[in-house]
Amino acid sequence: MIDQTALLESRALRSSVLERTDVLDRVKTLALLPDGLHVTTAMVAAYFGVSVEAIRQIKARHREELCQNGMVTLQGRDLREFKRDILSRYSGSYPQPRSGLTVYSRRAVLDIAMLLRDSEVARRVRTYLLDMEHLGRTVVPMFNALIETSGEHRRELTALHGDVRRAEHRLRQHSARLRRLEGRR
């Protein structure tokens, strides 16, 4: 089984599991902004139980990767529209500077879970991901083999059922013939 440090160190390995954003809510409920798609830096920090500064450091070190996975820093007109359309419905505060607001998709939050070392929640997310990967490599192929084998067994049973019906039909014929022969004596 893959070690958690592999997720911390390998971008390729992190990329291979980024579609599994459902894991976030399985470990702990991720509160989203009213658009149902994004969270702020403060919300990410609260989810992982770390400081906002810890998230900012991850953001600074892995900006390109996080941007590819849905992190966006809104400024100017985009920020005004986002505030008007989304944040006006949000009762919480967003303690980032008003000149810019960084928002994260669930995929970017999952990426942070694989980059953040000192968070128990992030550790649980990584463990869950690795357990699912392990199951995907071991249990799922086993179930597929069982399903395939059960199909073969079903075909064999169907063939045997046909053989039994033919044998039963022949036995009835022989029984009828015996009765006729016994009746002639």
Give your account of this protein's structure.
This protein has 185 residues and is mainly α. It has one domain (4-136). Helix content is 69%, strand content 7%. It is built from 9 helices and 3 strands; from the N terminus they run αααβαααβαβαα. It has helices at residues 4-9, 11-16, 22-27, 41-48, 52-61, 63-68, 76-85, 106-115, 120-184, and strands spanning 38-40, 72-75, 100-105. Strands 1-3-2 form a 3-stranded antiparallel sheet. The mean pLDDT is 84.
Topology:
Elements: H1 4-9, H2 11-16, H3 22-27, E1 38-40, H4 41-48, H5 52-61, H6 63-68, E2 72-75, H7 76-85, E3 100-105, H8 106-115, H9 120-184
Antiparallel strand pairs: 1-3, 2-3
Helix pairs in contact: 4-5, 8-9
Total domain modules: 1
The coarse silhouette is elongated
- What is the radius of gyration computed over CA atoms, rounded to a whole number of angstroms? 31 Å
Please trace the helix and strand order, writing H or E for each element: HHHEHHHEHEHH
Average pLDDT number: 84
Beta-strand residue percentage: 5-15%
Total helix count? 9
Overall helicity: 55-70%
- Weakly predicted, low-confidence segments: none
User: Strand order across the biggest sheet?
Assistant: 1-3-2
Q: How many β strands by DSSP?
A: 3
Quaternary structure type: single chain
Largest sheet features: 3 strands, antiparallel
**Between the first and last Cα atoms, what is the distance in angstroms?**
79 Å
Counting helices, strands and paired strands, the structural category is mainly alpha
